[in-house]
Every structure is written in C-alpha cells, then in structure tokens.
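The instructor's notes for this session suggest beginning with a concrete chain rather than abstract definitions. Hand out the sequence below and ask the class to guess, before any prediction is shown, which regions might be ordered.
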Amino acid sequence: MPVSVQLLHQFTLLRPLPPELLTPLSARMVLREFARRAVVLAKDCATPELGFLVEGRLQGVDFTVDGRSVGLYFVDPGDYFGELSLIDGKPPSEHVVAAAKSTVAFLDAAAARELIVSHPPLAQAVMARLAERVRAAAAQRLILSLPNPFQRLCMLLLQLPVRLVDGLQEVDQAPTHQEMAIMINASRETVTRAFQVLFLHKLLEREGNALRLLLPQRLKDIAEGRADPPKA
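After discussion, reveal the predicted structure:
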C-alpha cells in the first residue's frame, strides 16, 4: 500500500524536511498492517528498514536464555524505529512486536541512510534518539537489578513518562499489566496483585487508561528499599 505525502507530516523525524523532498520520499515508502502480537521487525532481519508507526502501538522486546521475554521500549504513533541497523548495517538487536493492531510505514535502509546523511537536522535527531536508547537501557538494567518484583514495578512506574494533572503526576495511556510484566521480568499475575495493593493503599489511582501517582515519594522509597512494600 503506498504512502501519501500528507501522512509523512505526522512523523516527527520527517517534519523538518522541505515539501519538495516529501513526494519522492513517499514513493519509496510502503504501508503494512500488523495484528496484535505480530512481529513487525525481527531480530535476525537481514534487510532492515526504517519504520514509522502510523497507528497502534509497538514494543521492543528481547528474550532471556531461558525464553522469558523482556520489554525494552514502546513506539507510539508518529515515532520511528529500526535506526540502529541503519547506522552499523547489522541486524536489529531486538524484536519489535505489535502491542496492538498497528499500521507501519517502511522506508528501505538505503533510502533512509541517504536521507539521514544528507540532512544534518535528521542526523542530529537520530543521534539524540540513540543516546536516549542507551539511557533507557541503563534504566532497564537498574530495574532488573532490584531484588523483588514489587520494587521493580515501583521503579518502572517512576520511569514512565508523566504529565501534571491537578498537581498530580499522571501516566497517560499506561502500559498493560502484561507489557509491564515483561519489562520487569515478572508474571502478569504478580503485576496485577501488586497493582491491587497499590490501589488499596492509595499510592495509585486509575482514571480510564491513565494512572495517577498519588504518593510518588513513597513509590520511590519502596523501589530504593527505604520502605517495605505495603501488605495486601
């Protein structure tokens, strides 16, 4: 399925490009649809592409030696993925899977590499993204080093992007329990039980798909071992 020029304006990486570049660029791109849990970009992909998420949600995941999945990052509409392979020419370092039914626009690696090299603002944006990935990987290692799942969940909640709503920190469109479980190396049931305790003790509250952090300092104290997790 071809990609319209108008659609390219929703992608943050491509917004700095002048209009005369968007038409030939759109001709090099293709749209693909993916069902929930489908593999969008495989770790062993020999011909990587730069992907742009049109709608839905994606998650970068990898697997431990015993087969357990570990969530690494999310991709939301307007964002892109697959940039690491463009830089070093090697296969992706993780799988990207559809966390929901998704539509993705793909640009072949040669065209994407030429585009980035030819436009310094895009190169700067990709470098900033790679630095963000390194910081996120360090934060993920910190989470996984914590001794119990309750601590790891509290630390994850504190690392999710928040906005201020009525003076409270709110996580908009919070990940599902399953998505959080694979990010902290725990079962979905363990995460669900932990949330029940956090709601019961009013450390969190849910508003639709959003989570409000009512006592972020208490969550931090639990995550860092200065306070014991509350009891059910």
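Then share the key points. Residues 5-143 form a domain with the Jelly Rolls fold (CATH 2.60.120.10). Residues 7 and 29 are 11 Å apart (CA to CA).
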